[in-house]
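Researcher: Here's my situation. A collaborator sent me these components and asked whether they could plausibly form a single complex. I don't have experimental data yet, so a predicted model of the whole assembly would be a useful starting point for our discussion.
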Amino acid sequence: AQTVTQSQPEMSVQEAETVTLSCTYDTSESNYYLFWYKQPPSRQMILVIRQEAYKQQNATENRFSVNFQKAAKSFSLKISDSQLGDTAMYFCAFMKHGLGGSEKLVFGKGTKLTVNP
Amino acid sequence: GAGVSQSPRYKVTKRGQDVALRCDPISGHVSLYWYRQALGQGPEFLTYFNYEAQQDKSGLPNDRFSAERPEGSISTLTIQRTEQRDSAMYRCASSLEAGPSYEQYFGPGTRLTVT
């Protein structure tokens, strides 16, 4: 079974600064995807960024980028130029991929990020 | 277009009652997923469907939980003889097709409280 660990329950950052959220995972699979989801106070679940394990290049989406270290099974999220609207819970998630793979997302427990003015 | 909708948004029920939670996915989405999120935790997979076929129900906690999607569109998650430990946010998600290449779009959730 796959597990996802987010070791930082809470973090804070000043507006306009950069913050990195950590995520590690455990799997014996070679073909999988990793995700970061954002859950703002409205309690929606919003996909922030996605990384395919077979791609060595780190994914980026505007101010959001990841540092994917496959050998270390690490998948951190970097938020640059933090904005007040980035205040949210951030969940790291894993999905196995391939023949016979279940399409379920396995989530970590989340990191609560607060951006301070 | 409309996103994933769920009803009711809030449900308070007494222990021992049955509840039915409804999910209306994005039109045309083949795959539909149910997750449960306890307070302060990440969502936990319950079950998923492709069209009307239930492909994986490994996350359903016990036989009090069941789900259906009879016409490949709207889905209902039913919890029989509710217990206090069933209290949580129940989220539905849909995707165009199954697989990680297709984004799962989440609904607003149904917050279930069992008293």
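Model: Some features of this prediction you could bring to your collaborator: The first strand of chain A starts at residue 3 and ends at 5. The interface with chain B takes residues 4, 32-33, 35, 43-47, 50, 52, 91, 93, 95, 97, 102-110 of chain A (CB under 8 Å).
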